């Protein structure tokens, strides 16, 4: 198991593989050692000296998105005799992204009848980094009406909550402008800002309410773009503009906004792009219903992406020996790996060859096979 910082240059030293395997100088080359990875993507390169180096500059966010830890799997193959060693390369995050709000201005409508101590959750900032390098804290510009708390979501993300310190008076001041700042855990921290516009409203005494606080939906990954996922519906006892509702996403991640769209009038949520079970298996949508007076109600939609058998197994040939000496038993002819990104029954694989051939398949490790002669071959009876 090795670890390396992301964004290091191609050719950067990772470790001395020969030393870690307890092999002498030149023994790796004598045994024709090579590095294998799933598919055709190679991140590491083995030098004659036994040093393991980076083949290219690696971007953790590109390879693993927000998955932490970011682990790249590889195998070390030694021939003569054949031996496999499993390897892991952990890609460590560096603070190369600043927090960013999806909107330059956050509109917050607050009734003048709101009592001190009332809390108002604000929209979160996005940060592609992970761990301590992602958003850790929020601050608000100095003012006489509000202070700010930074709280933890159930999924580990941090979000800001504005707390009212003293009663608002619309006739005295109808709106306030505040600056919300998001800080990550870097040293020094990177920051992102958004303006918060607080509009003070006349009294509206009924907030929208959803029939359920949590909706659970299952969506097949092959559903076409534009498919209806679910329709949410809220009610408001007020009349006129105070009873007219508008639906929107609330505190949603980039992944949610890219994959789904919501009709502000009807509450219909539809697919905006094709889903991929192998990439993202579930989404959590927070929906806000706002009335014309600035009050709002919220609900959560948990969407489970259902796997479809949409990936064929792949076979990656690592070693192929086309010329075999006759009269030599137990000769390794080929070494290859098989993979299938699907899950469950859709991802189970079986590997076979024709019955009449003088070879047999031998499973080595984790879907890697060797093709070996079943007996000594005779060129005079069959040359190929």
From TrEMBL:
Domain of life from the UniProt record: Eukaryota
Keywords from the UniProt entry: Calcium, Cell adhesion, Glycoprotein, Membrane, Repeat, Signal, Transmembrane, Transmembrane helix
InterPro entries associated with the record: Cadherin-like_dom, Cadherin-like_sf, Cadherin_CS, Cadherin_N, Protocadherin/Cadherin-CA
GO cellular component, one term: plasma membrane
Subcellular location, record wording: Membrane
Location of the Cadherin domain: 102-210, 211-315
GO biological process: homophilic cell adhesion via plasma membrane adhesion molecules
Topology versus the membrane: Single-pass membrane protein
One GO MF term: calcium ion binding
Predominant localisation class: membrane
Name listed for the protein in its UniProt record: Cadherin domain-containing protein
Species the sequence originates in: Panthera leo (Lion)
Taxonomic lineage: Eukaryota, Metazoa, Chordata, Craniata, Vertebrata
